[in-house]
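Input.
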Amino acid sequence: MKRKIVFLALMLMPFAYAQEIKQVPQITVSGEGKVKVTPDQATISVSVETKGNVAKDVKKENDTKIDAVLKLIKKMNFASSDFRTQRVSLNPQYDYEKKKTSYNATQTIEIIVRDLNKYDELMDGLVNQGINRIDNVIFQSSKLADYESEARKLAMKEAKHKAEDYVSVLGQKVGKAMTISDNTQSYSPQPVYARFKTMSLAESDAAPRETLAAGEITITANVSVNFILE
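Output.
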């Protein structure tokens, strides 16, 4: 009989503990932190696209232009880790009306521009060396981790301030945080590329020297915090 009583008591303990937890006054709030910064670097993707009727000739022409592009980048003292071949392709294109196959070769280079003062010079040089497609320009900050940390702290402060606003009229105080959920979405800088895709050599020659408007980027953090009320 004693064993049955002990077993029953042990079975009831988790339920009693759960009821005790549920009775603790709590409040759950969200907080958002935003930090606006001026970008100090950019990542650009540029391509050389060539077309022709003979595959090997098209590829050779493309390789020659890419070679000139890479030499220019090295001449401008970009670190080897700041540029790379992103994509290489050679595709047949069949014209059903002319019953003829042509070829399209494309090579894409990704370049990190850590000094935005070099941007205009680099772009002019790339176009002069054969770049005929600028796919995108993404503005970034070299201190992204620091700004993300600042945004998280601001989000937590806002969450606590919001909780204090809610409970102040009830004569209660905000206690310790029970749970913290990071709801921040991965930071993804917005690309700028629409007006560059169709830029020809003639258009680049006619363009003003100052062609970059980096503006600001916003680093955002979102949290959800569950506080105990005292």
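The chain has a mean pLDDT of 85.
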